Amino acid sequence: MFVIGITGCIGAGKSSVAKMFADRGVRVLDADEISRKVTGSQGSSVDAIRELLGNKVVDADRKPKP
Question: Fewer beta carbons within 10 angstroms: which end of the chain, N or C?
Answer without folding.
Answer: N
